[in-house]
Design goal:
With about 350 residues, the chain is an all-alpha fold. It is built from 17 helices and no strands. The chain has helices at about 1-25, 35-45, 50-75, 80-85, 85-110, 115-125, 130-140, 145-170, 180-190, 195-205, 210-225, 230-245, 255-260, 260-280, 285-305, 310-315, 320-340. Helix 6 (about 115-125) packs parallel to helix 17 (about 320-340). The N and C termini lie far apart (about 60 Å).
């Protein structure tokens, strides 16, 4: 009862933002519900004169609901997808992910950008935008403002990619009779799933390809999303080692307390989906869980928006935007080069 008494107001406020944001995200997929929710939360918090009654519920939503979202996200990942994409796209996926992470690390050192925001932008750019940031934030213990910054940066370049890439593909001479080349390009060079589908659908519509490009792009994107698993595990172990190293003498450090156990539940969910599908269960069975996961992400982003100082965000956002731009350009260039080397384009 104490939990409900302390948290219901904050959770209800987040729901009031998340529900309309969810439906607006369906209408404007290039933007997406998560971005709408975080922006709405940032604006609304400016008008809340007394946020104290809501703080506990907002904190619960931004932390725990976000972890639940990541666990449920695992049901959308069939580990066999990596085999379905074939050898063709895997070298491109690995190359683009490595490029983004290396660029983020180098700029973190050179420009003295804080480590957590650098990690979030690097992982968000290289894997799957908001979902990767959602999975990584609790692992590295990023605060709400860092998450908001990373989401904002990724969103900006997502929209640019969705709008510019179809025209760029036409200019570069991608095949207009097959969706393979542009589908792989969209799946490896665009960050968030919503923008991947938007760009691929535009290409299909431009050249009357049905859903050929979209099918390829989504398959490549789902394979790329699997990188969440090893990267979050590595980050978790790095954090665990740091926490142990910083522990005072005589103080016991519990691995269970430090290690984000929700990652193991996330992996377990992925394994359950993989086994079930291999036994003949339709992947459509997991669709409601995947949708709930996406809604939980929108709900958590509403809470993060409510906890974010938008004025401070604008003042401190310059360096992360430069990093996001560098990652975006690097991923795009490497994707194009690798496709050319492999003879796809």
């Amino acid at each position: 009862m104490n939990f409900i008494k302390n948290n219901w107001k904050g959770i209800l406020l987040c729901l009031c933002i998340a529900i309309p944001s969810w439906f607006l995200g369906k209408q404007f997929p290039i933007i997406g519900g998560a971005v709408i929710a975080i922006l709405a939360g940032m604006i609304l918090t400016l008008f809340l004169k007394n946020k104290t009654p809501f703080e506990s519920g907002i904190k619960f939503t931004s932390k725990k609901i976000l972890q639940w979202a990541v666990i449920l996200l695992g049901f959308g990942l069939n580990l066999n997808v990596i085999l379905q994409t074939g050898k063709q796209s895997l070298p491109i996926i690995v190359s683009t992910i490595a490029t983004s992470l290396i660029i983020a690390y180098v700029l973190h050192k050179v420009m003295h950008i804080p480590g957590k925001i650098s990690t979030l932008v690097g992982v968000g750019s290289s894997i799957c935008g908001g979902s990767a940031i959602a999975a990584t934030a609790p692992v590295i213990d990023a605060d709400d403002e860092e998450v908001a910054q990373a989401i904002s940066v990724i969103f900006f370049f997502n929209v640019l990619a969705a709008l510019l890439f179809p025209t760029m593909g036409s200019f570069l001479g991608f095949s207009t009779t097959s969706g393979e080349a542009f589908g792989i390009f969209a799946g490896t060079a665009v960050n968030d799933t919503s923008s991947v589908t938007a760009a691929a659908s535009t290409w299909d519509n431009m050249w009357g390809l049905g859903s050929a490009t979209l099918d390829t792009a989504v398959t490549v994107k789902l394979t790329r999303t699997l990188a969440i698993i090893p990267i979050t595990l590595v980050l978790a172990f790095i954090r665990t080692r740091k926490e142990k190293a910083n522990g005072t003498e005589g103080k016991k450090v519990s691995l269970k307390q430090i290690f984000p156990m929700f990652i193991l539940y996330f992996i377990a969910a992925s394994i359950i989906t993989t086994i079930a599908v291999s036994l003949g269960v339709s992947s459509a069975v997991f669709s409601p869980i995947k949708e709930l996961s996406k809604f939980f992400i929108v709900l958590a982003m509403a809470a993060i928006g409510l906890n974010t100082d938008i004025v401070k965000l604008i003042k401190t956002g310059g360096k992360p935007i430069i990093m996001g731009f560098a990652c975006w350009v690097g991923i795009t260039a490497v994707s194009l080069v690798m496709q050319h080397v492999l003879g796809i384009w």
